[in-house]
Write a structure and sequence with these properties.
This protein has seven helices and 13 strands. With 261 residues, the chain is α+β, with helices and mostly antiparallel strands. It has a single domain, classed as Sandwich (Jelly Rolls), CATH 2.60.120. It binds 2-oxoglutaric acid. 2-oxoglutaric acid binds next to strand 12 and strand 13.
Length: 261
């Protein structure tokens, strides 16, 4: 799948693009059906919330489940990203961020490239983060907040925060967020399950606690150009995969065409 010139313009201007209802309810249900087994596994890629003990994020999923191995090659998800990159991309990171009802914790203000640069030695902020909503995401259950256009300011200052949550994250300081949010406002990315987000590596974003009675799970795939691959890996493979094979797209019906093992 390719996106239109006007969508390319929006992505370039805002740093993110929302593609509503791109995956069907049946496709989302097929993906969601894999989660209970994956979350129950004793796997280092399963990161538990600090307070509740619920799964916060589950990583490396395309190496742990055959349906996720297809999802990371899905043309509706990855086609637009390869179109934007204009070159071969590899699977950098694959996860589901859960944010359970009542207990899902915050993702602090950050931009992804800070971590990619500091922890993986990625040279340039070219990677794209691709999300699929696996639940309806509303104003109540912890949607992502974006500072639109913040990717245009290049790299923002960042420090490692390994205390606030169970997931160490290079975070942006409040002053930077204030300045850019005062100038450009904030957008909360909401939509029905099956909606897709694409966003740039230097876009400031975060998400609040989920104090609602509704779960909020989101699939995330980070695609990085092969030419921009990590140079100084320090993190485990499930946080930044070492297999730099170019992603080759499958057919559009690959999630539902036939039974996946
Ligand atoms: O799942 C969330 O709320 C935050 C996800 C995020 O910040 C990311 O994918 O970089």
């Amino acid at each position: 799948m390719q996106i239109s010139q006007s969508q390319l313009n929006d992505l370039d201007r805002d740093g993110f693009l929302i593609l509503r209802d791109l995956f069907s309810v049946d496709e989302v249900a097929a993906v969601r059906s894999r989660l209970p087994r994956l979350f129950a596994e004793n796997h280092p890629g399963n990161v538990i919330e600090k307070e509740s003990g619920a799964v916060r994020t589950s990583m490396g999923l395309h190496l742990r489940d055959a349906l996720f191995a297809k999802l990371v090659r899905h043309p509706r998800l990855v086609g637009p990203a390869l179109q934007v990159l204009g070159e071969d991309g590899y699977v950098q990171q694959v996860k589901v961020n859960v944010k359970a009802a009542f207990s899902g914790e915050v993702w602090q203000w950050h931009y992804d490239f800070a971590t990619h640069k500091e922890e993986d030695g990625v040279p340039r902020p070219l990677a794209l983060n691709l999300h699929i909503f696996l639940d309806d995401v509303t104003e109540f259950n912890g949607p992502l907040y974006f500072v639109p256009g913040s990717h245009k300011y290049g790299e923002h200052g960042s420090v490692l925060d390994d205390e606030t949550t169970s997931y160490p994250l290079w975070i942006a300081d409040n002053q930077t967020v204030s300045q850019l949010a005062d100038r450009n406002g904030l957008v909360s990315a909401t939509g029905r399950r099956g909606t897709v987000l694409i966003f740039h590596d230097t876009l400031l974003h975060g998400s609040p606690n989920n104090m609602s009675p509704w779960d909020r799970s989101i699939f995330s795939l980070i695609v990085n150009p092969v030419s921009n691959a990590l140079r100084k890996p320090t993190r485990p493979d499930f946080k930044h995969h070492r297999d730099l094979s170019p992603i080759r797209l499958l057919n559009d019906d690959c999630l539902v065409a036939d039974a996946v093992a």
